[in-house]
Specification:
The chain is mainly alpha-helical. The protein has one domain. Helices cover 45% and strands 0% of the residues. The protein contains 3 helices and no strands. The chain is elongated, with a radius of gyration of 13 Å.
Length: 73
């Protein structure tokens, strides 16, 4: 949604925005340890269309590696 002066307002949970932004900038981020947190982060990544296909199995399986180590697709 665009606001005054053409600024974009993203109405999403700020808890995960830092990780999604880091992934978009650098191609990787550290995954949370909790499976609930990983599911929430996955939903946010999907919203921003920022989830590489190779990371899907790692996120769902609870892997400890970062998304960056799975490679981008």
């Amino acid at each position: 949604m665009c606001g005054v002066q053409g600024r974009v307002f993203v109405d999403r949970d700020p808890r995960w925005f830092r990780l999604v932004l880091n992934f978009l900038r650098d191609g990787g981020c550290e995954l949370p340890e909790s499976s609930v947190d990983r599911r929430e982060l996955t939903r946010e990544a999907d919203y921003y269309q920022a989830r590489p296909r190779k990371a899907n199995a790692l996120i769902c399986s609870g892997g400890r590696a970062s998304i960056a180590s799975t490679g981008r697709s």
